[in-house]
Amino acid sequence: MKITDFRRAVPVLAVAALAALAARAHALEIAKVGLPGASPSAPALGASSAGDAAPAPALPSAGATPAPLPSAPAAVSSAGPAQVILIRHGEKPARGSDLSPRGYERARALVGFFKTAPAVTERGLPAAIYAEQPRPDGSQSRPLETVQPLADSLGMTVNTSIRKPDAEGLARAVLSEPSYAGKMVLISWEHHMIPAIARALGADQAPDAWPDAAFDRVWIIDFDGGKPVRFRDLPQHLLPGDSAR
Q1: Are 221 and 83 in contact (CB under 8 A)?
Q2: What mean pLDDT do residues 84-100 have?
Q3: Domain residue ranges in the chain
Q4: If DSSP codes are grouped into helix, strand and coil, which group holds residue 194?
């Protein structure tokens, strides 16, 4: 080829090369945006090859049972005390609002009774001791005087926040206290109210009346799952002349 012919050919070759580059760039743009006219064999940018594509998740078939949702944890409730023991205050004099000498003797004897007697220590020592609220003038103090020696020996304070006629309030206080769960609670009260307290605690099998002459009995109510399951009326066997059975 002559030099003059080569010089003439250079501009033509340059134009052709530029046209080829422009066509290549146009093809890449088409493939990038997926416009019509792109080659079916040219994958879009960022697409995986056929061997790398993850399978689509299968849809459940009609009528299939869906997997159960996780359930919430069950609520935990207090079961209440395992045992409640009811006693009447000790013997009283013909006049006055305190205990008689025999009544004070019984109060002292109850210390060892509630620490060692098998019938009343099945659930250990008392978790709490309740006595009816004395009046400001000092009357209605016998139930407190009866259990004060026991409370002193155990380093406990007798709960006297509930008034004598409030059987329902006493039952609510005893049955709803979480710290009493699985334990024994002791109640010392005036004998006319003890049957009502037993019924408020759910012990329907308790007698309708506490005998007027009896100072030496214990009523024991056993609970299971917060419900009364057994009632017992037992003698204390503490002082001469106490009930034999």
Answers
A1: yes
A2: 97
A3: 1-44, 83-235
A4: helix
